[in-house]
Task: structure prediction
Amino acid sequence: MKLQTKKAVCVFVAALGILNFAAFAIVATCLGGDAINGRSENGRYFFSSHGKDTEVSQVVFNYSRIHVYSVWITHPLAIAAGFVLSSLQSQNRSRKDRTLTSQL
Result:
C-alpha cells in the first residue's frame, strides 16, 4: 500500500472516531445522560448524568447503549490511527533527510 493511501486511511479512521465521540457527547448532553450510566427497572428506562435521572423509551435506551459501545471501539482506533499517522510522517521525514544527505 502506498504511503499516501496509508495516511488517508489513518486520517479517515481518526476523523471517524472524533466525529463519533462528538456525536455521542452532544446526544448524551441533549438526552440527559446515557444508558451505560443509567438503569432499567420494571420496564422503565433511565439515563443518569451527575446524579440526575431522565426517563427514556426502550428504543432510545438501546440506541444509547449501542452508541456507547461504538465509542468504545472507535475512540481507541482513532488514537491508534493518530499514532500510526505520526509514525508514518516520521518515517517519511527521515527518508527525505537521508535523501538530502546522500545528495550532498
The first strand starts at residue 34 and ends at 41. The chain has one domain: 3-96. The mean pLDDT is 90.
